[in-house]
Amino acid sequence: MKFQPTAILNNGLEMPLLGLGVYDMYNKEAEQAVEWALETGYRLIDTASMYENELQIGNAIRTSSIPREEIFLTTKVNDKDQGYDATLKAFDQSLELLQTDYVDLYLVHWPLKATRKETWNALEKIYETGRAKAIGVANYLEPFLEELQTYSEIVPAVNQVEFSPFLYLENLKLKCEKLGITLQSYTPLVRGLKMHDERLLNLAKKYEKTPAQIILRWNIQHGVSTIPKSSNLLRIKENFDVFDFAISDEDMMIINAFNENFRVVDDPMLML
Q1: What is the pLDDT of residues 60-76, one digit of tens each?
Q2: Which of 66, 85, 87, 243 is most buried, with most CB under 10 Å away?
Q3: CATH code of residue 166
């Protein structure tokens, strides 16, 4: 298996910097994608209750030849299940569907104004039981992290947000580094909408890599974990083939400048 860089989370847990996202995959498609990913060498699988595929992800992991302890499994509490008691119940349901007695990372999926405090309190309780090896948040921009500091006992291990060269949230990245939170990017490939950007194509040609590989490598060199989604075997393999080259410091700066605050998912600030 290829060497994979990892992040050491603030509680000492090790997490791969590259994983498979399974948003908008259902039934056999989701199960097959995880099977292919594990065979390719991925060891981080990211799902969520909201995706309605935890059962399929659990099936793929259970039938894999890869030991469970070598797989870093993330899931998230659904918006409709937020709140203290509801989150505890939802977590039990996720474990049942995933056919495991623990997850490696459990996240608050969105910072819903009415329930985010109680939901975080529930995650802290879950963490205390050891059934989630780490807890964190998703879609938490700076104001949400600042609010969280006023009532949390535990610093989130991970903050998963939309993040790409075209949405380069440098201030959030710096804040997470200061707080000891590992940043993780979803939709890093911008759902393919920027793959024909001339600047990106020029860099892909220079490094003899695909545009997607340039973006994923950029994330990794920033120390940002990234979870590109694909159910296509060739794309799954392509996205994993990013460990045999490095982008120069000069070109990293060029890619940073691609930022145009381009989002493909709702702005979390609408939750305030």
Answers
A1: 999 999 999 999 999 99
A2: 87
A3: 3.20.20.100
